[in-house]
Design goal:
This protein is an alpha+beta fold and about 300 residues long. The protein has helices at about 15-25, 40-55, 65-75, 95, 105-110, 140-150, 155-160, 165-180, 235-245; strands at about 5-10, 35, 55-65, 80-85, 115-125, 130-135, 135-140, 180-185, 190-205, 210, 215, 225-230, 255-260, 265-270, 275, 280-285, 290-305. It folds into two domains: about 5-115, 3-Layer(aba) Sandwich (Rossmann fold), CATH 3.40.50; about 125-295, Tumour Suppressor Smad4 (Sandwich), CATH 2.60.200.40. The protein is built from nine helices and 17 strands. Helix 2 runs parallel beside helix 3, helix 6 (about 140-150) crosses helix 8 (about 165-180) and helix 7 (about 155-160) runs antiparallel to helix 8. It is globular, with a radius of gyration of 19 Å. The two termini are about 15 Å apart. The mean pLDDT is about 90.
């Protein structure tokens, strides 16, 4: 049987992580270790430390998309580590694409198996820093909405009733009337394209973002390709309508939505724009700053059976 380590974010989902873990810990009857995160990026530190010291390891994250993002960041390059996940966040986009652990029987099945699936990782680089993402990274309207929602008291209150997603809708409506659109230039191996009057663009390794919106329907998490969705040159009211279609993946039919695929490309953002990686705020861009995006093939192992 594999070594099993749980990394638990009790604050995920405004306390949902703790509730979910309290139910799980009463049922686990096989050897395991438990670590409770105490701060931002603590899950990364724990995951790396465990990967350094334990062989044939399954790390099971309990939390939201931010938790699994941190865990995977800590184990990239460790071929003997497999990742499992028990969703306990407010968005849980990771669990919409990747297999998750629902029962103790699932956990035992994974622990007794040596099977895994190799998955890709996306990167966004500037001269100063590299960001990694499991689900997606984005710039513009969606990143600003995510920032405002994640740091709002509204989300905390709504999470008490398992309605945290409504915070995103509230801030989406606010920014619909106040957001300043921007410009960027895309550089690929084959062409250079300038996009003006941009609402947002999202770089995806899997289809979902924002708590279930199917922004990139054709994305596959282990095909060594990233998909980019650009939304520009449309009215505020039409943007609201298009957002309603994103949950079903129908937005791609609109002429204001552009999509392309590449394994590597560079974007020069010409304005100060909010950014995110896996839904977490990554900063505000400097004007005319270049960001290089690429895919790291087979970067981590998803536990399977």
């Amino acid at each position: 049987m594999s070594n099993i380590v749980f990394i638990v974010n009790e604050h995920a989902g405004n306390g949902l992580g703790k509730k979910v873990w309290n139910k799980w810990k009463e049922t686990i009857d096989i050897p395991h270790q438990v670590f409770i995160t105490e701060r931002t990026e603590h899950a990364t530190e724990i995951a790396k430390s465990c990967a350094d010291s334990l062989d044939d390891l399954i790390i099971v994250g309990v939390g939201g998309d931010g938790t699994i993002h941190e865990i995977i960041a800590g184990i990239v390059g460790f071929a003997h580590v497999r990742i499992g996940f028990i969703p306990a966040g407010s968005g849980n986009d990771f669990s919409r694409t990747f297999a998750v652990i629902h029962t103790l029987r699932d956990l035992k099945s994974y622990a007794n198996s040596n099977s895994h699936k190799e998955m890709d990782l996306g990167t966004v680089r500037t001269p100063e820093r590299e960001y990694q993402f499991v689900n997606n990274a984005g710039f513009g309207f969606d990143a600003k909405v995510a920032y405002l929602a994640n740091y709002s008291t509204w989300k905390s209150r709504l999470n008490l009733f398992r309605l945290g997603k409504l915070a995103y809708i509230l801030y989406l409506l606010k920014e619909l009337f106040t957001f300043d659109k921007f410009s960027f230039t895309l550089h690929t191996n084959n062409e250079i394209i300038r996009f003006d009057d941009v609402w947002f663009f999202v770089i995806c390794n899997q289809p979902f973002f924002g708590g279930g919106m199917k922004i990139s329907p054709k994305s596959i998490a282990n095909d060594q390709i990233l998909e980019v969705t650009v939304v520009n040159k449309l009215s505020r009211w039409k943007l609201l309508f298009i957002f309603g279609t994103v949950f079903f993946g129908k937005h791609t039919k609109f002429k204001e939505v552009t999509q392309f695929q590449a394994s590597e490309f560079t974007m020069v953002l010409h304005n100060e724009v909010f950014g995110h990686v896996d839904g977490e705020f990554s900063g505000i861009t400097d004007k005319d700053t270049a960001y290089t995006c690429s895919v790291v093939a087979n970067a981590w192992n998803l536990a399977s059976r």
